[in-house]
Amino acid sequence: MSLPLESELLRAFLVIADTGNVTRAATVLGRTQSAISMQVKRLEEAVGAPLFERGPRGVTLSAEGRRLVPYAQRIVGLIDETASAMRSKPLDGPVRVGIPEEYTQTVLPRALAAFAECHPATEVTVLCGHSAQQARALENDELDLAVVFDWRGTQSGDVLCVDPTVWVTSRAHELHLLRPVPIAVYRNSDWFRDFALRSLQQHTIPYREAFSCDTCSGLATAVSAGLAIAPLARSNIPPAARELTREDGFPPVDSSRVVLKRNPHRSSAAITSMMEVIRAAFQPSALG
């Protein structure tokens, strides 16, 4: 090419290719027909080949014109994207997010990375804890957003997904065959009593408490080590473990919805943007 390519020449080229008519392209671009024709001539001189074939009803792309189209689209698109980004005001203000421990290795890193890439100047604070803790923090104005498990179907907010809790065992052990079956338990948990233990009691499965902790990672450790079976979110089953199904004699513990709740007293563009990236991170393709 003897001359540098200019973005406005490429933009005019794409409009002509789309409309098939120099006059219509001139109207779209707000230029005169002669000015558009001159731009086409300059672009053809730059690439060293004719880009259009002229006919009585307008113009069609030549072979070189068709080859240029995808490159022109990428260049013009990148320029438009750059201009839009530079005109956008950076988001400010802190964003305080609460999320269950179950998603700290999957959803949370994806969401924070996507948010930081778009809004590097925004200060993000994360609280990792149980759903009840998240709900209290939201009510006390300590959080702007909270992701919580809703196992009773009573929580308001955006439903991100359904992530049932199931009984899980190590693949290398057959602990679920033992009676009483050793289980890992959450300490001081109403949910564990009302859902996990009740699921065993309703199916007359005798059990003994072999491991207790306050975190889902503790439960996962107990399973992986072959110390006990444990109730875990289906999306959070360790690689060396498997779900215990009805065929094994163990029904699901619950059908938890995962809900994104927003502090009604806080509103900002940064909070809205964080909501969007959290929703995207919880899409089925991302969780799978």
TrEMBL record:
Pfam families, A to Z: HTH_1, LysR_substrate
Alphabetically ordered keywords of this record: DNA-binding, Transcription, Transcription regulation
Annotated GO MF terms: DNA binding; DNA-binding transcription factor activity
HTH lysR-type domain sequence ranges: 5-62
Domain of life: Bacteria
Family matches, as PROSITE patterns: HTH_LYSR (PS50931)
Ranges that cross the membrane: none
Family: Belongs to the LysR transcriptional regulatory family.
Function: Transcriptional regulator of the ttuABCDE tartrate utilization operon.
Name of the protein: HTH-type transcriptional regulator TtuA
Species the sequence originates in: Rhizobium subbaraonis
